[in-house]
Amino acid sequence: MSKKLLKVSLAILLVAVFVFSAFGCDKKPAVPTDTVAPSGSATDPSGSEAPPVEVLPDVPANRYDALATPRTGSNATVPLVVSTGTLDGKFNPFFNTSAYDTDVVGMTQLGLLYYNKDGAPEANIDAPSFAYEYSQEIEGDTSVYTFVLKNGIPFSDGVIMSAKDVLFSMYVLADPMYDGSS
Questions:
Q1: Are 149 and 173 a contacting pair, CB within 8 Å?
Q2: How many other C-beta atoms are found inside a 10 Å radius of the C-beta of residue 153?
Q3: At 40, is the pLDDT very low, low, confident or very high (cuts 50, 70, 90)?
Q4: Strand locations in the chain, DSSP E?
Q5: In whole angstroms, what is the distance from residue 180 CA to residue 182 CA?
Q6: Whose C-alpha in 32, 61, 64, 182 is 20 to 30 A from the C-alpha of 139?
Q7: Which domains does the chain have, with CATH numbers?
Q8: How far apart are CA 180 and CA 47, in angstroms?
Q9: How far is CA 25 from the centre of its chain?
Q10: Distances from the Cα of 8 to the Cα of 1, 14, 55, angstroms
């Protein structure tokens, strides 16, 4: 009798899978997008030229600005909920004490440089880092690192980051009393 029950259960499950897969197919055509055909001329036929638009190199015109765009609908009131292990609540990259806190820091904070999948440091407009560019000069026992910071990067309180903030981070790491991770 149990074999018969198993066969009936599997048959019902198989029918349910087919029904859900049939209704899951989207039969609506994709929304067509309007494309503009290139014109033969690169100049304005009216003869008037638009004034040049000044764009800072580290603020691309197509970059989404989450601070300037108001949250609407359910995004205005619904929080992001995630699951993790027990957090110690030390979300400072210098003093976090658990792997879970380190994960939160990695997802919510940027570093001075970004390290790609090969472990090579990157600094450019598209890299998730504070540095726009950097250079390293090694001569004998002396190393000189030069960083150009991106403009207008705010802290969570709205204060714009400066070179003094980066220098503070270096001082914390170089402090002989510092006992955190390096």
A1: no
A2: 15
A3: very low
A4: 114-115, 121-122, 131-139, 142-149
A5: 6
A6: 182
A7: 84-174 (3.90.76.10)
A8: 64
A9: 32
A10: 11, 10, 68
**Res 61: pLDDT:** 55
Residue with tokens 């090579």: 120
Residue the block writes with tokens 């149990």:
2
Kindly report, residue by residue over 87-143, the tens digit of the pLDDT.
888 888 888 888 999 888 888 888 899 999 999 999 988 888 899 999 999 999 999
- This prediction's pTM: 0.51
- Non-local CB neighbours of 111 within 8 Å, separated by 6+ positions: 129, 130
**CA distance linking residue 15 with residue 20, whole number of Å:** 9
Closest CA to 148 of 167, 134, 162: 134
Q: What are the distances in angstroms from CA 43 to CA 40, 49, 50?
A: 9, 8, 11
pLDDT recorded at residue 38: 47
Give the pLDDT of residue 55: 47
